[in-house]
Amino acid sequence: MSFAMHDGIRIHYEVEGSGAPLVLLHGALVGLEMWRELGYTAALRDERRLILIDARGHGQSDAPHEDAHYAPELMVGDVMSVLDALEIPASDFLGASMGAAIGFEIARRAPGRFSTLVLLGYGRCGPPAAAEQQFNASGRRLYEMGAALGGEAMVAALGPAGAALSPVTRAAFAANDWAAQLAFYNAFGNWPGFEEDLPHMALPCLLIAAESDAFYAGAARCAALMPRATFVTLPGGVHSQDSYRPELVLPHVRAFWKGLGTR
């Protein structure tokens, strides 16, 4: 098991495949196994060197309980620490939801370490749409339930919704340190906005979201303000499913890379 150290926190990562490096950063509440369950690693490992990272508070990485440990600059630094450990000067990046939020922060704070960004199912620009507000309120209830009950009891309390979770998500929910998860959620809700920085984010960026995803409107607005961004709409509307579907996402990703003449 491989770890990088940053800010006194161990960051778990795994490497799979060969080719030009590509960092994969998962969504909240799960870990790097998300990419295997969805089929991204099987689809990409013959063409890319995949660097799968467990964000702090998730998977096998350390999980501090204080909100201050989840500041955006620290979570960006975690990704840099993995690249440093692997002696990779620059990489491409693909992030989903929380991972995409960190991708926006990378574009602001560490653009020199990445060649391209692919951001799935996330964008925060302008006032949140009603769907995003509802999603965030439901998320708050979920995190607080986990912190109050613990993982196994929380999954059981979800009833049919818990039973319908994918195997990887259900296992992650049961194993999560929910005090750490709640600390992350508290911190994440207070991350500063980046709307004023979007016109200066010059990295080539592909933003993808399903048409009824809670974050669709925000992602579309972000893309409109970024000088080298492409926005793709997918059918469907389930945030953690339709915006990630590899059979729909990866053709656009490969076309994006090919159009830049870099892959």
The fold-level CATH name is Rossmann fold
Structural class label:
alpha/beta
Order of helices and strands: EEEHHEHEHEHHHHHEHEH
What summary fits the major beta sheet?
A: 8 strands, mixed
What does this structure look like?
The protein has helices at residues 33-38, 40-44, 72-85, 98-109, 130-149, 151-157, 160-163, 167-175, 178-188, 216-225, 246-260, and strands spanning 2-6, 9-16, 20-25, 48-53, 91-96, 114-120, 205-210, 229-234. The chain has 263 residues and is α/β, with parallel strands linked by helices. It has one domain (2-129, 192-260): Rossmann fold, CATH 3.40.50.1820. The chain has an eight-stranded mixed sheet, with helices on both faces. The two termini are 30 Å apart. The relative contact order is 0.15.
Key traits:
single chain, alpha/beta, Rossmann fold
Describe this structure in a few short sentences.
The chain contains eleven helices and eight strands.
Q: How do the strands and helices of this protein lay out in sequence?
A:
Blueprint: E1 2-6, E2 9-16, E3 20-25, H1 33-38, H2 40-44, E4 48-53, H3 72-85, E5 91-96, H4 98-109, E6 114-120, H5 130-149, H6 151-157, H7 160-163, H8 167-175, H9 178-188, E7 205-210, H10 216-225, E8 229-234, H11 246-260
Parallel strand pairs: 3-4, 3-5, 5-6, 6-7, 7-8
Antiparallel strand pairs: 1-2, 2-4
Helix pairs in contact: 3-4, 5-6, 5-9, 6-8
